[in-house]
Amino acid sequence: MADKGATTVLRVIQNQDLDVKQKLRLIRLRAEHFFFGFNDRKGFLLKFVIYTLLLGIGFVYLYPMLYMFITSMKSLSDLLDMAINWIPSSVYLDNYNQAYQVMNIRPALIGSMQIALFPTVLQVIVASLVGYGFARFEFPLKKLWFALMIFSFIIPPQILMMPKYRLFSEIGLTGSLSAFTIPAALGQGINSTIFILIFYQFFKQTPTSLYEAAEVDGASQFTSFFKIAIPMAVPAFIVAFLFSFVWYWNETYLTSLFLTSSSTDITTILLQLQSFEQNYEALYPSTEAGPNRINEGIKMAGTMLSILPLLITYFFLQRYFVESVDNTGITGE
Amino acid sequence: MSNKKIIALYVLPSLLLLAGLVYIPIFLTGYYGLMEWNGVGAMEFIGLDNYMNLLQDPKFWFSARNSFFLALFSTLSLILYLAVSLILAGKIKGKELLRKIYLIPMLLSSVAIAQLWIKIYDPNNGMLNSLLQTLGVDSPPAWLAQRETVLVAIFIAIIWQYAGFYIIIYSAALKGIPASLVEAAEIDGATPIQIAYKIKVPLISGVIKTTIVLAIVGSLKYFDLIYVMTGGGPNGASEVIASYMYNQAFGIKNFGYGSAIGFALLILALITTWGIQKLTASKNDSIQF
Predict the structure, then answer these.
(1) Residues A80 and A115 in one domain
(2) CA-based nearest residue in chain A for residue B6
(3) Chain A 260-319, CB below 8 Å of chain B: which residues?
C-alpha cells in the first residue's frame, strides 16, 4: 500500500501539465486519503489508531481472565517464585481438584442453575409484556405508572432488605426457590426495571405501520405481539436473558439472606465461593506434620469454576445473538 | 377481548407486588427516619431531628458530592461506550471476539472484581505501580489509600465493570437499524463518521436516553465496589450516599439516621430523574421509519 502511495506521488511530480501549487495540493490529497481514508475505505493511520485502541482496551479487559486462569494453574512453588509471572513451570491441575472437593460442586451447581434459570425465564417474559404494554398502549395515568416503575429502580436495595425479609418470612417464602421466582414473575426480580426499559425501547422502535398492517389483516393483539413484536425484539430477549442469568448467578446478598438463614438444602456456587476458606479449613485441616494452607492458586481455581457455566452460556448466546438478527429480516427491508 | 383487559394483563404483573415490596418500605424508611433506633431495640420518636442533623452534616454533603461526580463520570463514559459500539458495528476484523472480551467483567461478581482491582492498585507490587516504576515514575501514588487518588481509581474500576453492559445494549440497538438506510447514505457518498453521527446515533437516541437515565440513577445508588474496595475510606474520602447510609445503619447501628439518609437519597434521585425527563422531553423520543 505504501508502495502504491509512493508511485502516485512520483507520477504527480512527473506530470508536466500541472504547476507546483497544484502538484503539492494533489500530493497532500493523496496522502490524506492514504492516512485518513476516503469514502468507505479507511486510511492506514485511522485503521492503525482504531485497532491499537481496540486491542489495548481488549487487553485491559482480558487481563483479569488471564491472571485468574494462569494463577489457577500454578503450584505452590510457582506461586512463591517471583520470577514466574505468566508461564507456570508445569500445568498443575490439583488446584481444580481441591476446589472441586471444597465447593461441593454437584448440589451447588444444581442450586445455582435453579436460582439463575427459573427466575430469569419468568422475569424476561414479564418484562417483555410490561415493556410492550408501556410502548404500545395509551391508558389512564400511564405517565404516573411509568414514573413509579422507574422510581422502584432508584431505591437502593439495602433500604428494602429489612422490610422485605420480614414480609417474606411471614408469608413463608424464605428458604425456598419461591423467594426468587415469585418476585420475578411479578416484575420485581433483580433489576427488572432495566429489562422493562430495554424492552420498552425496542418495542417503541418497531415501525407502527407493521402493527397497523396486521390489524387491517384482522390480527388480534396477541397475534401482533407474538408474530410482530417478539421477532423484532429477539436481540432484546437475548440481552435480557443473558444479563438476568448472570445477575441471578452472581447474587450473594439475596441468596445468603433467603437461603442460609433458614434451614434449607439449596446452596449456590457463589455461596460456596463466599465460604471457600472456612470450607477449605474444614476439609483439609492443617496438621502439625503438614500445614495444608490455602493459597491463591486454589482460590482462583474456585473462582474459575464459578464462572465457567456463565462463560459457556455467554459464548453460546453470543453466537445466537448474531444469527437471530439475520433471521428477523429487520436488516433486509 | 376488549382492549382494556389486554392492557391490564400486560401491565398489572409489575404493579401487583410493587406496592408491597417497594412503596410500603419507602414510607417505612421515611418513618424510621423520625426515630432514634438501633435496628433491634425499642424505637424512640425524636421528630425531625435526624433530618435536621442531616442537613448540617458535612460528611453527608461530601458523600453527595462524590455521588454527583460518579454520576457525571458515568454519563460521560457513555460517549466512550457508544464510540466503541459504533466502531464495532463497522467492518472491523475480529469484532465479535472483541465484543466478547469487553463483556467479561459483567460475568464476574462484584467481589471478584473488587479483589482484582485491589491487586492492580496495590502500592508495592500492583500491576499499575510496577508499570509506572518501569516507566520511570519514582514514587507512584498509593491509589486506594490516598485522598486525592481514591475516587478516580474507583471510578475507573466502575467504568471498566459496566462497559460491556452498555456496549451490548448499544450493539443490539445498532443492529436494529435497517441496512437500507445506511446503504442509501453510502451511495450518496457519506463518510462512515457522517453515517454514524447523522444516521445511526439519531436513530438510537431513545436507547441512548434510556442508558443516560440508567447510568445516572445507577450511580446515585452505587454501592458494591466502593464498599468492598475501600469501605468509604480513607477517612471518608470515597464515601458515596449509599455507602454512608449503609455504614450509619448497619455499621454503627444508627438505624434511624441511616433511614433518614436513605430517604434523602430517594428525594435526590427523584429530583434528578425528573430533571432528566424535563431536559429531554422536548425531543421526540420515538422514531418512526
Answers:
(1) no
(2) A221
(3) 270, 274, 303, 306-307, 310-311, 314-315, 318
